[in-house]
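lol ok so funny story. i was supposed to be doing the assay writeup but got distracted and ended up predicting the structure for this chain instead. priorities right. anyway since i did it might as well share w the group, maybe its usefull for someone
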Amino acid sequence: MRILALDTSTPCLSAGLYENDRPVWEHHDEGFGGHAERLASVLQRALRGRRIPDRIAVGIGPGSFTGLRVGVATAQALGYAYDRPVVGISSLEAAWWAEGCVRPMEVLADARRGRAYVCRIGVRGRPSRPVLETRDAAGPVEGVSRLWVGTPAPEWGSPRGADAALSRLARGVARAASKAALSRERKPVVPLYVLAKDCNVTLGGSARRTLSSLAGGSR
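and the output, tada:
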């Protein structure tokens, strides 16, 4: 199965094309902002001269409103243009897959105001739904590693375990999507925002033109 995966939930733009879990093409950069302008050209390079993927997979956060909307809207547009299913994957679950998914783990993301989104994943690889918790409510669990996606929340003290490599989030998104059942493909792709703000996302003219040519030129 060939999967086009992308994650824009963090300042690092992570994208890749994967064949049976093996990378065909990967890209990441750690610039801040500007996902709307960069993503279309990145995906154009990923798909140029290659056959259309079987699935489109996208990280759905938790993350910023602007970053997530760019990734989710782009994935949905490509799924519509190519007539391919779009699978939404929690970026916390993706971090676990990217880290090797070999042990129980708490994967967290800073939700500000002393809170964090926590996703608890057991040995069978069945991720919990990310939930908002305070430090007191989410005390460390003996024998379970703790992994932060992005910068750890300062109120939570020194992080336990290794920080997630943001550059590998797309690989984790693809691995999780490759295991997803057909029923999961048909579920709505709903972003999980760190803060619910009344924001707007606007693709620049060059990004719109690039995305349009991408969707029309790879059939």
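The chain has six helices and nine strands. The longest helix spans residues 65-82.
back to the writeup now i swear
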